[in-house]
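Subject: Interface between my chains keeps coming out wrong

I've been trying for a while to get a sensible model of this assembly. When I model each chain on its own everything looks fine, but I need the whole thing in one frame so I can look at the contacts. Pasting all components below, labels as-is. Any help appreciated, I'm running out of ideas.
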Amino acid sequence: MSDLLYPIKWLSKASAGDRVAHELRMRIISGKIESGTVLSENKLAADFSVSRSPVRDALKVLASERIIRLERMGAVVVGLSKQDIQEIYDVRLLIETFVFERIVKMDRKDLVRELSKVLEMMKIAVKYKDADEFSYQDVLFHETIIRSIDHGYVSMMWQNLKPVMESFILLSMRQRIEDDIEDFDRILENHALYIEAIETGDRKRMIASLHQNFDDVQEVEDLWKSQQLMTKGVEPHD
Amino acid sequence: MSDLLYPIKWLSKASAGDRVAHELRMRIISGKIESGTVLSENKLAADFSVSRSPVRDALKVLASERIIRLERMGAVVVGLSKQDIQEIYDVRLLIETFVFERIVKMDRKDLVRELSKVLEMMKIAVKYKDADEFSYQDVLFHETIIRSIDHGYVSMMWQNLKPVMESFILLSMRQRIEDDIEDFDRILENHALYIEAIETGDRKRMIASLHQNFDDVQEVEDLWKSQQLMTKGVEPHD
DNA sequence: TTTATACTACTTGTATACAAGTATACTTAT
DNA sequence: ATAAGTATACTTGTATACAAGTAGTATAAA
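Reply #2:
Try treating it as a single job with all components included. I did that and got this:
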């Protein structure tokens, strides 16, 4: 088994099943395991040096995220297309605009303070060129916003979306921290704008900030580059 | 083990894990298993006469739906509160309004035809006082709308929501077919209005039809009644 | 009576075993 | 050479076994 794509430190207390799920997700989204590949529970168990039980758990999770398809014989890798990424953004936009409408009716002081903290963390991460830490804080930023309205089913939707988003952002940021380090300033600025929008309850500014993120196709390009990079060194997964 | 709440005929090709998940979900949402109860994998396996494996699968599914909470020792039943049901409607409204915006930009002829068919089925179900069939068609109606825009991640959100919705609607309709059979006319009319809104692309009418559904708290009352009914005959699940 | 320790009866997560089903390849008969 | 049937090497779903850990209880000591 080759080295891991998912940060080991994020898995400190995770079960074997979780580890397999996270690592497999990264390999699929990065393109290291190509779309169309048929995964076998037994082969995966051998690859990861675990039994079939945790592998089965992992495959169920990945199937619910639609990056694999469970069929009669074997799990077929689907992966993430550009359209998928667009769709993820659709849903994120959908969720976050809903959340914003709730937020503006609440006391937002604590939230703004919390988000400011996360933003500072992101700045430090950029300073030390730590793509993984940056990704973590980026995801946390949006999760903090979403969870602030205390809506069980919206949180649920986020939980379903999060793992794929996280992997995708991780890969994208790792790529970008090599190619476009100065681009992170723009991302940081965008997040600052988001905080301002929440603070002032300015719906327009919030939408603008969101779209500025979403219209930025850079991340898609990053992922594509990353996939090219990966598939070069891929072992033929017959 | 007492008799089943979930229609057996809907489980013809389902695995043992699916059966357990569906039945357990019904018992939890109906209140037959009360909130706070701690479920044990071994006890459940014995109750359903299966091994722990399918029970584990089922518990994972129910946990992702947030009707139970997986803890260190045992799975704690959470159940559905009135707020949860309100939240489900929030999300359904969110999804369906998004879907509608896409639909009005498409050719809607086939969709309208398909929906009309489902609506006729619903009418027959009412005629024969078949609450289960009615529920099935009702869920199918909304699923047909949502899947028509061919959006993977929106479909995913629906898939995550569907099982709980389905159970909830089933219980509510079974209650209502006893108490308020004439009320089904109003529901049918509402669905007809929905189809019209799609056909004409009339956003306002669609929103109206949606709200008419959502503002109707009857379903919540039905569920509550159903729960009262159930908890009377509940065996103390120490 | 209170505190500490050890024991019992649970729990989960993982590994392994087995039954039933399916696709591929290889016979064998025509 | 081709078609039909059969063997085999896979697959999944379920059952069972085992290790590690946790709550609660009972017993022992102060």
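Reply #3:
Confirming on my end. Chain B has two domains: 8-79, 82-226.
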